Fold this protein.
Amino acid sequence: MIDRPPEFDAAFQEKLTTLFLWRRDVRHFRPDPVDPDLLRHLLEIAALAPSVGNSQPWRFVQVQDAARRAKVVANFEQANAEALADYKGEQAKLYAALKLAGLKEAPVHLAIFCDEGTAQGHGLGRRTMPEMLDYSAVMAVYGFWLAARAHGLGAGWVSILDPAAVCRDLDVPAAWRLIAYLCVGFPAEDHIDPELERRGWEHRRPAGDFIVRR
Amino acid sequence: MIDRPPEFDAAFQEKLTTLFLWRRDVRHFRPDPVDPDLLRHLLEIAALAPSVGNSQPWRFVQVQDAARRAKVVANFEQANAEALADYKGEQAKLYAALKLAGLKEAPVHLAIFCDEGTAQGHGLGRRTMPEMLDYSAVMAVYGFWLAARAHGLGAGWVSILDPAAVCRDLDVPAAWRLIAYLCVGFPAEDHIDPELERRGWEHRRPAGDFIVRR
């Protein structure tokens, strides 16, 4: 695996496309536990993400304590109620009917932070775009997500949260910024289309709509 | 590919790990052109990234005009000179010797923006973490990058740029925020270790260093 540059054949390329097509934001989980060795492997994959200046700013917190998890659930429920209040009429009804997190069922809670205080990388690449540090941690999330799906696991990114409260409730260092809170486990269903599209919240546009030339 | 949920076997999982291991930030390119159909395919993969509320905020700009490319090169050279001035002694010498972008050689310049003004997604998931919109576009970058590597292409993310000047020089809508400026092409060399590590700028730490439990 590491002795010489790999070649990726058409069969792999096609399967990789399939992986991207079937990755989903999962909110419906089976209760089956996740093998700790698999979780560790997925975190190692996450840590292979690009990082600005080789800063590796990602910090992974496995949230195992029931009391801490309950605080995150309460955090989500309050933030979600507040979000619902922003919508009116049919849109409010539709929002209220959406299941936007699988926090109670997912066997694994994983919070990903960015260590804004890290000296690693010596600031390279961050002078004019300091947000690159956060972006590095975001890529670690996506790497985890894709690798998880390749192992039959689903992940759901919960952003309907007060991030400052998550930092406090998980007792992380002051310099850590919450990037993502993930629910992870075996999905109850597999779909090729996003739940938000299936439920009529928002449709996807084709990729060509997003491409321009200059 | 789309009729029923896929299964990913151990051989695919291993090859996927190899892909993550050998993805690199590439700054040394061969001049060979990139097939436009392949580039289009990679952008379609990029657009399969997760996006908050199904907002799909990524906007892909293929920078083909020589004058615009020259402005980006000048932007980089100025920002890089300013960055160099922040370092002293041996570190300044080392920084000055690094090749931090392949803008002049890469056959493809691709700028990825986030449309901060998009109504798509109706704000879902962005109320307490508005940065989720940018993060969605970041994941599109990583999806592109991984798929590119699976097709033998390399990408390098150039963040040593004044982002406001890039927006101006590429004449994009005012609501678009620069997320990434990528050099894309066939790499002149393949490596399993990052160039910044190989050149002594910064070493990588093992994944276990980044994992905590709560």
About this structure: Chain A has a mean pLDDT of 97. The first strand of chain A starts at residue 58 and ends at 62. DSSP finds seven helices and five strands in chain A.
